[in-house]
Specification:
Elements (H helix, E strand, L loop, with lengths): L5 E7 L7 H13 L5 E7 L11 H4 L3 E2 L5 E2 L2 H9 L8 E3 H13 L10 H15 L8 E6 L9 H14 L4 E8 L2 E2 L4 E2 L2 H12 L6 E6 L5 H11 L6 E5 L7 H8 L1 H8 L10 H11 L3 E9 L9 H14 L1 E9 L8 H5 L4 E4 L8 H13 L4 E4 L1 H13 L6 E3 L8 E6 L14 E9 L4 H6 L3 E8 L1 E3 L4 H6 L3 E5 L6 E5 L6 E4 L14 H24 L1
Parallel strand pairs: 1-6, 1-7, 2-5, 2-6, 7-10, 10-11, 12-13, 12-14, 14-15, 15-23, 16-17
Antiparallel strand pairs: 3-4, 8-9, 17-20, 18-19, 18-21, 21-22, 22-23
Bound molecules: glutamine.
Length: about 550
């Protein structure tokens, strides 16, 4: 098979949660910084067609791409590291693979053959890996295989990797195996045996790892590296230590120090050069040397889960670095907030973000928090459900529509200020049917957001079913909450603001998905700045008054 694209497969061994996504993104960054056009793909072995139907307890945040794909959160890392948009083709699940094979079978495309895992499922996997570079846009495609080697559900993927390695030939495809070297404190030793077994499991499927990236809490001594090399059929230079880092943004430099990029490029027969990480390192230096700090409350109902608001937390890191300020994010569970405790729980904060979400649980706490924030001039950013709750709070407490609600929460509410779009009403399937992906928005002159974006038209990513109900727009605007961003085609309200407040913005879209190291999202940058200003000036005045 003639191809100029090089393929790197990343598999995981011993345990899950080793950070394959970060290693893949860090390697991609080092290759991109040497001029190689690089993209990353994630193959997920579960049977859901996409993670859109998984709740955050199962799978963390659902990341949304410009083309409206609901994807694995690792795609967020890819975009944040590379500053290149991903698409549906960058995330494939077993569900999607089987769905397309079964659809082909129904169309009779297999011409009477028995449809089997090998070759039909594996061919579909190989096709999905190679189709990513259909347009010849990339020099290198990195494919991360979700799950752990040895899992039953990973087997077709490992088989597809074996076949592709063979089809593509030496120097065109390599396998990086990410593994764990546990430290037994009772023995005071790092142990290689689990890695030996996991490399052996990979070999049982006919796949030899070319590079071992070893996650460890302690430095790997030379003798342990030689032992791993000898037992695992891997050259010593290809034993790469990945020691725990204080921030994921350190990992590209750690991999550079270990020579991961050099060994990979050598195996792929490509030239290596010194990567240009100037901009990356400038970001790191600003991130690590803040001149001041602010505390921002993140109010949501999944706050106990590290991964459920991943893109929001990362966007605060990017925007904090941009403002040279350390952003302490304090997670606040909306279920435990009420009118009596909001002052106690929120008055020390310099800004408050009310998070996206689905369903009724915890929404009254969000509404109580927004009332407090609005009345006390604390900078506020509401994202998706957070924006919808701001509209409900305003309608209830300023317009006096005491039972205003979203029809998502109370179907029969007499004031449905947030309601389903007409075209959503007949939809019954849950998967992939929300308003998804990039939609444009026209911004009104003289608004906070015009000042933030410095553009009249923006494109932002959406993931929701419910919308601001335009029947209430006139009433709400007359009372002081303005719709400052509208969808130019449908007139749907995408942004609301309260001009009499210090900084109060609600957005129906998800700005967090588009924040990257190279391009911190302007709305987060402005929100963090507003929190800084509030801390410096207004907090004292407001608190003195109350
Ligand atoms: N549940 C709301 C809707 O579907 C908000 C969704 C979100 O916050 N992503 O409209």
């Amino acid at each position: 098979m003639a191809t100029s694209t090089k393929y790197i497969f990343v598999t995981g061994g011993v345990t899950s949660s080793l950070g394959k996504g970060i290693i893949a993104a860090s390697l991609a960054k080092l290759l991109q910084a040497q001029g190689y056009r690089t993209t990353i793909q994630k193959l997920d072995p579960y049977i859901n067609v996409d993670p859109g139907t998984l709740n955050p307890y199962e799978h963390g945040e659902c990341y949304v791409t410009d083309d409206g794909a609901e994807t694995d959160l690792d795609l967020g890392h890819y975009e944040r590291f590379l500053n290149v948009p991903t698409s549906q083709a960058n995330n494939v699940t077993t569900g999607r693979i089987y769905q397309s094979v079964i659809e082909k079978e129904r169309r009779g495309e297999f011409l009477g053959k028995t449809v089997q895992v090998i070759p039909h499922i594996t061919d579909e996997i190989k096709h999905r890996i190679q189709i990513l570079d259909n347009a010849g846009d990339y020099d290198i495609v990195i494919t991360e295989i979700g799950g752990t080697v040895g899992d039953i559900e990973s087997l077709p993927y490992i088989e597809a990797v074996r076949q592709l390695k063979w089809d593509l030939g030496e120097n065109n495809a390599i396998v990086i195996h990410l593994t764990l070297i546990p430290y037994l404190s009772a023995a005071g030793e790092l142990k290689t045996k689990p890695t030996q077994h996991s490399v052996k499991t990979l070999m049982e499927s006919g796949v030899q790892a070319d590079v071992l990236v070893c996650r460890t809490e302690h430095e790997l001594p030379e003798d342990l590296r030689s032992k791993l090399a000898k037992f695992c059929n891997v050259r010593e230079e290809a034993i790469i230590q990945s020691i725990d880092a204080s921030t994921i943004y350190d990992v590209p430099n750690l991999m550079l120090d270990e020579g991961l990029d050099t060994v990979v490029l050598k195996k792929l027969g490509l030239n290596s050069d010194t990567p240009n990480l100037t901009q990356w390192n400038e970001f790191l230096s600003r991130h690590k040397n803040p001149k001041s700090e602010v505390t921002i409350g993140l109010i949501g109902k999944y706050v106990e889960l590290q991964d459920s608001y991943k893109s929001i937390l990362e966007a605060f890191i990017h925007s904090g670095a941009e403002n040279e300020v350390s952003v302490n994010v304090e997670s606040i569970h909306s279920e435990y907030l009420n009118a009596n405790n909001v002052k106690f729980k929120l008055s020390h904060l310099d800004g408050i973000l009310v998070a996206p979400g689905f369903g009724e649980r915890g929404i009254e706490g969000k509404i109580d928090a927004i009332k407090y924030v609005r009345e006390n001039n604390i900078p506020f950013l509401g994202i998706c459900l957070g924006m919808q709750m701001a509209v409900i709070e305003f309608s209830r407490n300023v317009l006096g529509l005491t039972d205003a609600n979203s029809t998502e929460m109370v179907h029969e509410t007499s004031h449905p200020v947030i309601d389903l779009m007409e075209e959503q009403k007949s939809i019954t399937d849950k998967g992939g049917t929300m308003r998804l992906g990039a939609w444009s928005c026209s911004i009104k002159d003289g608004s906070i957001v015009k000042d933030v974006y410095k553009q009249s038209t923006i494109e932002e990513r959406h993931r929701h079913r419910y919308e601001f109900n335009n029947d209430y727009k006139q009433q709400i605007e007359a009372a002081g909450m303005l719709a400052t961003g509208l969808n130019p085609d449908t007139d749907l309200v995408e942004i609301v603001e309260i001009p009499s407040h210090s900084w109060f913005v609600g957005v129906q879209y998800h700005p967090e998905y588009k924040s990257t190291v190279a391009n911190p999202h302007p709305l987060f940058v402005a929100f963090v700045k507003a929190a800084q200003n509030y801390k410096k000036n207004e907090k004292n005045v407001t608190m003195a008054r109350s």
